[in-house]
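Q: what sequence does this backbone want?
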């Protein structure tokens, strides 16, 4: 159940005071959990699927497999789904033997089938007008995108979700118009379109220094990749079920990934923008 944020915003955390602010020209944002909550609960679909495939008929009476899967799902948030399914193939082979494993493509199809049932009503609600689109976004997300665009920042989305689905969902939420730089996502069984590749291409194509790129996301993958190239990184430790507010578990993994700043949502957008664009810079 998606709810409204019912409390004052949590404070912005500036974790790296040596971060060079004020030079941002381009911004790459993750989609699910960072801007959109249409896929809120995807972990509750992926985790039992993986446990079911790994455990087989033997089950998981002691919960060891579930704990292994939960750790992996936590660490891999932001990766392309096909890469997560590569891990599942390896895990099934380790636990039950290679002959029991399906292909990563088959596992991805099973996952998408279950997940689409999970989100169909939400998407249909927006597209029919029954559900206000703001109810399917992290609080303050659109205003933050608009403020970046008004400052002349070129915006991109990169997601581990299939690119056609990201485009569809971004359009349904009314956000696609902000992403003049492009919307990037997974393409079928290809492993090529990673967030690392998108970050590299933005920097190289536009001749940017690291601090001229902002990377915003709720997963450790995009934060690590952004930090590796010297970008300014904002971790969004969002409680997706409430559309905002702090999720301590997300915060922990984003801190470990090296985020420069942590926000629970974008309700403190003006304060965040003041940090990213200091007066006089």
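A:
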């Amino acid at each position: 159940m998606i709810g409204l944020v019912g409390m004052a915003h949590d404070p912005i955390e500036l974790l790296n005071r040596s971060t060079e602010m004020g030079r941002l020209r381009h911004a790459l944002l993750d989609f699910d959990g960072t801007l959109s909550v249409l896929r809120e609960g995807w972990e509750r679909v992926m985790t039992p699927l993986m446990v079911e495939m790994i455990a087989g008929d033997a089950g998981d009476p002691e919960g060891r497999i579930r704990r292994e899967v939960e750790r992996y799902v936590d660490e891999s948030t932001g990766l392309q789904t096909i890469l997560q399914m590569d891990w599942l193939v390896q895990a099934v082979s380790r636990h039950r033997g290679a002959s029991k494993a399906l292909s990563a493509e088959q596992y991805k199809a099973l996952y998408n089938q279950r997940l689409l049932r999970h989100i169909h009503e939400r998407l249909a609600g927006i597209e029919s007008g029954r559900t206000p689109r703001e109810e399917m976004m992290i609080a303050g997300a659109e205003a933050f995108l608009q403020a970046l665009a008004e400052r002349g920042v070129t915006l991109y989305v990169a997601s581990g979700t299939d690119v056609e689905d990201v485009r569809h969902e971004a359009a349904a939420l009314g956000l696609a118009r902000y992403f003049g730089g492009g919307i990037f996502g997974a393409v079928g069984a290809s492993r090529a379109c990673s967030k690392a590749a998108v970050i590299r291409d933005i920097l190289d194509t536009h001749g940017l220094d690291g601090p001229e790129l902002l990377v915003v996301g709720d997963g450790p993958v995009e934060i690590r990749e952004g930090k590796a190239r010297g970008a300014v990184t904002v971790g969004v430790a969002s409680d997706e079920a409430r559309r905002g507010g702090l999720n301590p578990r997300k915060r922990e993994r984003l801190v470990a990934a090296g985020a420069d700043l942590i926000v629970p949502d974008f309700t403190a957008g003006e304060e965040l923008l003041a940090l990213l664009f200091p007066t006089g810079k």
